[in-house]
Amino acid sequence: MLILSRQSGQSIRIGDNIVVTVTRIFGNKVRLGIHAPIDIRIVREDAGDKAGMASRARRALLEDRVKGLEKQVAAANGEGEISISTDFAQEIIKVMRAI
Q1: Do 83 and 76 meet the contact criterion of CB atoms below 8 Å apart?
Q2: Which of 11-15, 43-47, 55-59, 79-83 shows the lowest per-residue confidence on average (mean pLDDT)?
Q3: For the whole model, what pTM was predicted?
Q4: Which of 29, 46, 58, 80 is most buried, with most CB under 10 Å away?
Q5: CB 38, CB 29: distance < 8 Å
Q6: Cβ-based burial of 21 (10 A; exposed 0-12, middle 13-18, buried ≥19)
Q7: Rounded to whole angstroms, how far apart are CA atoms 9 and 20?
Q8: pLDDT grade for 90, boundaries at 50, 70 and 90
Q9: Distance of CA 81 to CAs 73, 76, 86, 87, Å?
Q10: Domain residue ranges of the chain, discontinuous segments joined by +
Q11: How far is CA 51 from the centre of its chain?
């Protein structure tokens, strides 16, 4: 583990495209700003982190939706040409927006 000391306003760079900045220090708490590509998942690892639990629940829901969409596509695949309903298209849009 690399341990660094930083003051408010100072940053560290991880690789070529991740920057972590100390934005504020108050008491024994530090506020960090993280600039990273959208495909990098950033999650707090607190033991009782409600946001982490909500994120996992949301991911499970999305996985269920994707499986349902995959089944519908597989069923339509046997018919030759695939045409999708408006409801199916809207479901795809919901999944994509949630990612």
Answers
A1: yes
A2: 79-83
A3: 0.47
A4: 58
A5: no
A6: middle
A7: 10
A8: confident
A9: 11, 8, 16, 18
A10: 1-41, 43-99
A11: 12
